């Protein structure tokens, strides 16, 4: 019995593990060597778009903008409202944004972020414990000195001297290391995703992965973490995804939306969901 078990285990290791490693290698090469459709939005701001017919054994549509923080640190901002929901493009237009991405989780009934949000020194939402998002273990902060993505807790967030602070999550990569993600439907199932990262060479990445379509299957958070790692992310965090996932670039399309928001169940640029806040480049 024991010998039979060992033979089965040996067969598994011999055939399955190399296949798995080969598959991961192929996925990483697709991202690293991809012929991304690139467009320079302005100096130090590059829009990348790619469609993959077999990435993670699925169909994927990825749009991401790389922003050189050495040039544009002072032009990164957060915009939000404590009660009123607006589309990402509406927020972007009101704030004269060049590039914008939807941001934190929000209350769809009453508006406002369900987690702590401070914009330019003003607290917009406190993220009270009773309605706080349990996935929110990461913070994006903007100060005069730097822009950071890091693990956080309520005390450090409230005591932060950064002018703008946004809690969301989960954290995906922390100081070049994958963060262990609990096994649950939110992390493990494929959905449209919105996320941000900071690379080792001081670039800020806004990324949207489309989903809920036969033309774009979406990613789970383990897959999303790998994509960021392959693109050189040092720190990365998830934001509100699903029907909220929207990437805006001024004048790139009729309404500025360059991905395919899923809220209208059509693969077009019109399916935006109204959200509570955005991160943007002005």
Automatic annotation (TrEMBL):
Spans through the membrane: none
Keywords on record: Glycosidase, Hydrolase, Signal
Superkingdom classification of source: Bacteria
Signal peptide bounds: 1-23
Ranges for domain Phosphodiester glycosidase: 97-281
InterPro entries noted in UniProt: NAGPA
A Pfam family annotated for this UniProt entry: NAGPA
Gene Ontology MF term list: hydrolase activity, acting on glycosyl bonds
PANTHER family named among the record's database cross-references: N-ACETYLGLUCOSAMINE-1-PHOSPHODIESTER ALPHA-N-ACETYLGLUCOSAMINIDASE (PTHR40446:SF2)
Name of the protein in its database record: Phosphodiester glycosidase family protein
Protein species of origin: Sphingobacterium daejeonense
Lineage: Bacteria, Pseudomonadati, Bacteroidota, Sphingobacteriia, Sphingobacteriales
